[in-house]
Structures are given as structure tokens and as C-alpha cells.
Amino acid sequence: MNDTIAAAPRHNAAIRGRYEGGDGDAPMTALIRPATPDDLEPLLAMQQRSLRLLGAAFYDREVLEAALAEMGTMDPRLIGDGTYLVAELEGRIAGSAGWTLRKPNYARLMRETLLPLPGRCGTVRSVYVAPEVTRRGIARRLMAAVEQRLAAEGAEVAELMATLSGVPLYDALGYCAVSDHVLALGGRMAFPVVRMVRPMPAHRAVMAHRAGAAAPCPAAAAAP
């Protein structure tokens, strides 16, 4: 896949369309808990399956396989840091998400330099939901838990690199797309992602005051 083809799906209406999280089956009540080292193997299996199946409408198969081989689905150090959560349903992992205040490991694959955001920034990491339980509220609950913990650690702005398949969800959660980027895989394939940001509630009011007017998307004031 060349870079021109890879970047094109970003502007497809299906990607930018509204995330209809409430139109699936009834919401599921999952246990949200910190991940443990024993979770790593089933976590990776769920994440790989999720990326392959849910990403198939947005990325070529060879690009997905290259992404799995070169950057994987998560940084296992997040488990040791205590900054990775799992959603558990009937004893099985149905979703996962984490956060960090340090530079993410995928940064080495970025073709462009990321401009700094104002305020103390925390990065949302590796958000996945098992394909069979999508649109059941699990991703929303995980994101709420992650943002709560980021705010408790003093983060003023949350940022993430969204896969094309994840953009509608983050749009619905109040994140703003601020820039498109490409991760270089093996020097020959491109994995397009979207940088999205959302200010933490306490910081949002400050930014709106500085901007002089409320923006349609509150995080727009945080964009470089």
C-alpha cells in the first residue's frame, strides 16, 4: 500500500461518521480492573483479533499484519506500571485500555514530529474491545476510567493516536482530530492514524476563557 492510498480512507464519510454506540444490543456490565501479568497472553490474543477484524474495513490485510509484527498491540510495561485496565465479562477479557505520561513506544515509527500540546498531557494507550461485544458500552466505560485516572495524576489534556476504525468512537467522546499522521512499517508500508485530543474538564474551562469563546469542540483550543 502506498502512502497516497493509505491516507485516503481518513476522509471517508464512514470513518468520520457518528459513532452509534447506543444502537447495538443492550449495554453490558463489565468489571473494570487493573491488568495483571497473568492477563498478558489473553490480552494480546483479544487485541490481535480485534485489530484484524475491526480494522479490516480500513486497512489492507498486509498492513495490519505488518503493524502487528512491528509495533504490536500494547506496551507490556503498562501492566507493571499499574496503568492498564481490562474489562472482564464472565471471567473473560472483553476490552482493555491504558494510559501513560511518558513517550509512547510507537513514536519511533512516526514520520512527522509531533507538536507539543499546552498543559500537562497524558496519552491514552491501546484501547481495544473484543469484536463480539462492540457497541455495548465497554469502550466508553474503559475510556471514562482511564480519563478519571489521568486527571487524578494531574493531566490537563488527554491525547491519543486513533486508528481509522476508532475515530468515530473518540469523536463521540469529545475528542478532536488535530492532525493526520503515518506510522512507517518496515520502511515500505504506511499505517495512517489520527492524533486526537480532549482537555480534562477542569482544564477545559481555562482554555475556553483564554480562547474568548467556546469552540464547537472544546479540545480545539488545545490544538497546536
Q: TL;DR of this structure?
A:
By secondary structure, the protein is of the alpha+beta class.
How much strand? 25-35%
Order of helices and strands: HHEHHHEEEHEHEEH
Derived from helix and strand composition plus strand pairing, the structural class reads: alpha+beta
Q: Could you tell me the radius of gyration in angstroms?
A: 17 Å
GO molecular function: acyltransferase activity, transferring groups other than amino-acyl groups
Keywords: Acyltransferase, Transferase
InterPro entries: Acyl_CoA_acyltransferase, Bact_Acetyltransf, GNAT_dom
Protein name: GNAT family N-acetyltransferase
Give a structural overview.
With 224 residues, this protein is α+β, with helices and mostly antiparallel strands. The chain has one domain (3-211): Aminopeptidase, CATH 3.40.630.30. It is built from 8 helices and 7 strands; from the N terminus they run H-H-E-H-H-H-E-E-E-H-E-H-E-E-H. It has helices at 3-7, 13-16, 40-54, 61-70, 77-81, 138-152, 167-172, 201-211, and strands at 31-34, 84-89, 92-100, 121-129, 157-163, 176-185, 189-199. Strands 1-2-3-4-5-7-6 form a 7-stranded mixed beta sheet. The chain is globular. Residues 1-24 and 205-224 have low confidence and may be disordered. One of its GO terms (molecular function) is acyltransferase activity, transferring groups other than amino-acyl groups. Residues 30-201 form the N-acetyltransferase domain. Keywords: Acyltransferase, Transferase. InterPro entries: Acyl_CoA_acyltransferase (IPR016181), Bact_Acetyltransf (IPR050832), GNAT_dom (IPR000182). This is GNAT family N-acetyltransferase.
